[in-house]
Amino acid sequence: MSLAKQAEYDRNDPFPVEVLSQLSSKFACYEEAIQNPRKDVIFLTKTFQSEFHQKALRLREDFCGTAAISREFIRSDFERFAVGVDIDSRAVAWCVQHGLSSLHSGSDRLELVVADCREYQDAKFYDIISANNYSLFLLTSRMDLVQYLRRVKQCLDPSHGMFICDLTGGSDCFIKRKVKRQCGNLAYIWEQDNYNFVDASWQCALSFLLRDGSLLKHCFKYTWRLWTMAEVMDALYEVGFSKVRIWFSDLDEAEELVYEETTNIPGWVKSWNAIIVAV
């Protein structure tokens, strides 16, 4: 059973203003402190170009939240079209109320859908489907992971389709810790509460400390499945992808994420991020 009705978001029937005002700070903070959609779009379009020697024109951003990557994708080229899919209607509503205003033009090339990404499937073929911000960790069973990736494969253009996602890992994931990092006018606080080796569940929370001293405490809380790189790669090959490439960044070595393509992430790296590209 779907966790949300599959439907295009109705821009003429937004959330009440008082509800959005309560949510506005956390979504705005997330975009400012956590996301870098311009960098993401440059990476995914350049990688697509290097694989297929043509321009990527059709993107589906799964688990899109406020659809920051989709907005940047259509902003980057007037020929581009994007679909953002997310189960959280509040995040989609925030995008409609606040995010689309930054486009100035081109919002007609962005379609927003409120749906469960595990079950969503449409009639379009896409050049790229993305699942960023550790979204695969929301899929807590292998059956869900494989089912989702199989649907992704079916929705990619058979001649030039590319899937992209990101993971994190390293020995620091298994310990209780708190990380605070300044990002412009605010700081984010990342807290890891518990990792369970029995079911690989991982409990984390994200807070934001604003410049005026106010704290948005635990405004994002997660109970994830911490998939390993090998598990995700096995699932990708199982559903029919023929090639998987990995880019890696050592979080202990640099303040800013700097990725290099690799076939090896050493076990001694305490904390890392990785981008996976499958074709």
TrEMBL record:
Q: Which domain of life is it from?
A: Eukaryota
User: Gene3D superfamilies under this entry?
Assistant: S-adenosyl-L-methionine-dependent methyltransferases, Vaccinia Virus protein VP39
* InterPro entries associated with the record: SAM-dependent_MTases_sf
* Name listed for the protein in its UniProt record: Methyltransferase domain-containing protein
Give the organism the record lists: Galdieria sulphuraria
